[in-house]
Write a structure and sequence with these properties.
It contains 8 helices and 11 strands. By secondary structure, the protein is of the alpha/beta class. The strands form 3 sheets. It has a 5-stranded parallel sheet, with helices on both faces. A 4-stranded antiparallel sheet has the order 6-7-8-9, with helices on one face. A two-stranded antiparallel sheet has the order 10-11.
Length: about 220
């Protein structure tokens, strides 16, 4: 999962990024809403927004994005706990609302749930024929038997399983696997796809010539 965090508290944001990374999420972090106005269009699975941002508020950012038909799930993560602010945030277009502080496990679970629902999945276990991916256990199954995969292989399969009919370019896959400031190797995707095919079956991951890869749904 690729997550965009808009938070002006530097230490908190760094902790969020580090902790969500441990939950197999790739996070980009911005400090102000103005920067997020265009950045939020770059293919994220979900967005975490603080309300008390400098300049444009988090509420204004949500309204801005929804007015431009940005449909990505948005979770408000703020210290403001009154019911009026919760109502205002949800009415502005947010999909969920969490009050700081919170256990990172709850935040990660809510983000996974938002991304699943946005992709049309209702359960934590995603299935595609004989292939299954349990997002809670972080386990892959083939014909009911567990398949041993690395962290990178799991994250790659999760990209495909969330949107089994979508073709992902190598660039889009790299965006989901690495942050923008990490080094990237153009051969990484081809190597990972090859390794994953050997474990779940070559026929399950298709190469769409000139476009990228997709899961055989």
């Amino acid at each position: 999962m690729r997550i965009l965090i808009v938070e002006d508290e530097t230490e908190l944001a760094k902790r969020l990024v580090a902790n969500l990374n441990r939950h197999d999420m790739t996070c980009e972090w911005l400090e102000c809403a103005e920067d997020a106005k265009s950045f939020a269009l770059e293919g994220f699975d979900a967005m975490v927004i603080d309300l008390g941002l400098p300049g444009m508020s988090g509420l204004e950012l949500i309204r801005f994005l929804r007015e431009r038909n940005v449909r990505m799930p948005i979770l408000i993560f703020t210290a403001r706990s009154s019911w009026q602010e919760k109502v205002a945030g949800l009415n502005a277009g947010a999909d969920d609302y969490l009050v700081k502080p919170v256990h990172i496990e709850e935040l990660a679970a809510r983000l996974r749930a938002l991304a699943r629902r946005a992709a049309g999945h209702s359960e934590e276990r995603l299935t595609c024929g004989a292939l299954a991916l349990d997002t809670a256990e972080k386990q892959v199954y083939l014909d009911g038997a567990p398949v041993a995969v690395t962290g990178s292989e799991y994250r790659l399969l999760a990209i495909f399983m969330h949107k089994p009919r979508q073709t992902f370019s190598a660039s889009e896959i790299l965006d989901h696997l690495y942050t923008l400031d990490e080094e990237r190797d153009s051969n990484t995707v081809e190597v990972l796809v090859g390794r994953l095919r050997r474990k779940v079956g070559r026929e399950r991951i298709l190469t769409v010539r000139g476009l990228g890869y997709r899961l055989q749904a």
